[in-house]
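Predict the 3D structure for this chain.
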Amino acid sequence: MISNFRQNPFSLLCFWTLIPLFLKQSIAGDDTLKAGQSINDTQLIVSATQMFELGFFSEPKSSNFKYLGIWYKGIPDVVVWVANRDNPIINSSATLKINGDGNFVLLNQTGEDFWCSNASRSVKNPIAQLLDTGNLVLRDSNSGSENYVWQSFDYPFDTLLPGMKLGWDLKTGLNRKLISRRNQMDLSSGKFSYGINTDGVPQLMVSEGNKTMFRGWPWFGNGFSRSRSQEANFMYNTSFEISFSYNNGPNNEPSRVVLDSSGSVVHYMWSKGDQNCHISYTFEGSGCNSYELCGNFGLCSSVLVASCGCLDGFEQKSTQSFSDGCVRKHPEICRAGEGFKKISNVKWPDSSGEFVKIKLGTQNCEKECLNDCSCLAYGALEIPKIGPSCVTWFGKLIDIRFVRDAGTGEDLFVRVAASELESSQKKSGVAVVVAMVIISILIFLALISWLIIRNVRRKAREDQGAVMIEALIQENELEMPIALIEAATDHFSVSNKIGEGGFGPVYKGKLPSGQEIAVKKLAESSRQGLQEFKNEILFISQLQHRNLVKLLGFCIHQEETLLIYEYMPNKSLDYFLFDDRRRSLLNWSMRIDIIIGIARGLLYLHRDSRLRIIHRDLKAANILLDSGMEPKISDFGIARMFGEDQTETKTKRVVGTFGYMSPEYVIDGRFSFKSDVFSFGVMLLEIVSGKRNRYFFHLEHQQLNLLGHVWKLWNEGRALELIDETLRDQFQEYEALKYINIGLLCIQGRPEKRPTMSSVLSMLENNNMELISPERPGFYEERFEWLGVDHSPSLGDKLTSSSNNVVTITLFDGR
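Done. Predicted structure below.
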């Protein structure tokens, strides 16, 4: 049984909840069932090319609930259709047969009916066949091959297969739609449906009962083809059918569209090459897809998160919530002089029957709308074989959004008052005057352009790539609905809380698929905010490496700001490293693997990733450990991106954690890739010693921190004394000296003396490395007399050293 969940498309994974199918046999290797034949719960019908199987299964697997279903033969237990989903056979054997009326009937061992096909007409010589499309059909054996009296495709489960149709069919009188299951383990009909609203301009909709949750684009034949997939088929013929279906992709590999129990529509594709299920796209009611997010006359746009505005000529109705919608600035819209304002590149508003009228073969849409005072807006389209036509809206303009990709949206013409048009004309006149003033100002500015250019270039070096980042975020759909996260965490139950940092509390959760997640929830008291949140999404969503934590999604809902990650069962490195009891669980081999894993992840950030990233907050607390104790670099909230030719920049806002920040960064605000190298060196020495740099104390070197202590031991030929005492007899002396040497090279005071991460990784993996004499570390005597400092993590602490240098530090310790 499929377990569905939402993820950003780049993750390409899905999980299966297996249904225990008993040892079964095909009935004579046939794909048909004839009158007088039957199958029981130990038998199967298999389609001609072994694509699908029909038989009985139990769900949940430990239950006595028995269902008749169809599933893929070659994919682990992916059920695509269930006959008796709302009426399982309980504690009994089961039999499927064709009765005297030519209908399927499902019986228990006492002969009680649990399901019947109820075909619209009877046949004399019935024959049933399981097709390679996954369609179970019933027909007269003497009739044409596609003259079906009944087919399972007309009665969908929660799955749409290629060639299967949603929508209305005149022949059968059915309006076919997917119905979600009640929950992951309950196959009975749930509260969500996915189908076509055929009243008005057709549009695919997900509904909860009679309430629209989110919808697709309005379409009319091929009238809106710019945003349509080549595999999608849209049929509009009021005398025949209004339907949507899709074809398999060019590789003809199995695929399906599933309406999951949370109301999301997920398109899965099976790859025969790697035997994995890939998520092609997810259609869900989060962000701008949420039907009533911006209310009547609202307009939604989304770059990082969804935001609401009003259509031209309208203003927000309430200061409390945009879901209350907008109202006209000037209510007089049926007097001389009113007209229309064009809004380009949008998804047209809800085009259900009560809101819309369609006039075929009409060219002058503006005149059609202007002649009716109740007409709110119009749109024009070209319908194949019909010609120019008009769509006009009445009553409400709801669920309008800007589209992400230019050229794929439509034009909408909104009716506005004459005063709005006059205002626009006045603005045009004023624009000429303003332009003359601007030209004069530009001539003046040219005299001091060298100052501007210098500042702009400096700013460009600091923020190079910002435009690229904003474009990249548009490529990902990471938003998750709040309902999914609340269900996963049991509404952020205290029992699911696993930690708390500078961002806020962290909760463990489980998605409907069974995948465990960690949810970071922005706390009201946190001084972190949108910038850190945005950084995390922008960077992690673009980075793919085994030693970087994976971001699964994010959610902004009212006051809630959430980040969703893969769950790391072994917590963070500091959880083991700085605890006297747990430290011994990290043997020498594990520590070396962790060091090398961090180095590989950092090299990817600095050199090999799509974005060149400086982390700026590397520390043991930000190294998470998976079930195999493999390290994952996390927390990119204060990371910065560098351009290809950029090596260093400067900031007035120093952010990071004491004990890990490089001296040039703390003192001068200068940071570069070498700043991360310094932090890595500190972590390396902490890992081999089991001691924390911050608050380190040694009786012999009371005025030195860990870095100074290591430096002293190295120069005195006693470096092996640094190694954690719990590691005795687990390492060779040369090997231990090599790692201490690399750590000292990374923490050298002058950044130009520190190696790059490519050199560091080369040294780590070189078993014959010659030891190199390092220079003195930065912060060699870091026993500053900080005045009036609260050592608890805070933002904007002003720190005064014994040399009276004042530095403003933003701390994210314990994030």
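The longest strand covers residues 186-197.
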